[in-house]
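User: Show me a protein chain along with its predicted structure.
Assistant: Here is one chain, sequence first, then structure tokens.
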Amino acid sequence: MAENEKKIRFGVVGAGKLGGFHSKTLSTMPGVTLVGISDPDLVRAQGLAWEHNCVAYKSHEELFGQVDALIVAAPTEYHAEIGIKALEAGVNILMEKPITNSEEGARKLLELAEKNKVVLQVGHSERFNSAVVETLKHVKNPRYVTIERLGPYDPRVAATGVTLDLMIHDLDIILTMIDSEVESFEAIGASVLSNHEDIANVRLKFKSGCVADITASRATMEASPHAHLPAGRLHLGGLRQRPAKDLQQKNSGNPEPAGYRGDFPEVGKETADTRGDPPLHRLHKDLENPHPQRGKRP
């Protein structure tokens, strides 16, 4: 970065687990100045601020006027309230997923971002997962996709159902992968450990003819995210942030099925280099160049 190039001034709202991740990442980025961290629990904010050499605030509104962009890592139920105030103040936002807990709140945020010509980006970090990035290079017009994202219960997100907590990642991946409108969907869910659905399954049918089955659960003992594409040719095991070797080629010797563009590279060699910045680094950098709309490949 050139010495005379202006750094982006960031603030973080929320000093919890995700706020800590974002603060740590921002504090290591050369093109960024981490101005401060806000949290109603000022003691918690102060501890994180000391760790990353910035200022602690009790209210996120104290950051307005001091920052170019804000990372909102507060509980989901506060996303709309915080986001509306920030956008009205002309501050760019990277909102942790999900964008809000209501369609009304999400639409209000989108309207304000467009009206005030500021960036509103949602933190779908799975877009930057090396396995997902590599898959999107080689998969074209799939006919059938299944994704399972299973994990243990986390009381921290008890106020949000598993659809907005976990499945939202896979809905985003599917809508990025499949360049077609959704024709219909069927969904079912069950509450096991909270007042919201803890297990959910949805089948999406696209106008292109593709069918996608997505299952999410936070009622299993061990985290296990997987994705499958037809004919056993491709399996993504463990979609957590891992090296590209998790992208496995399974060639049965059968003719190439519809939906594939050539052979998949042998992952781990120079043909499939997905090294580089960790996903959060790429997500924060992406705030300067917002991700294209759904249906466009990243």
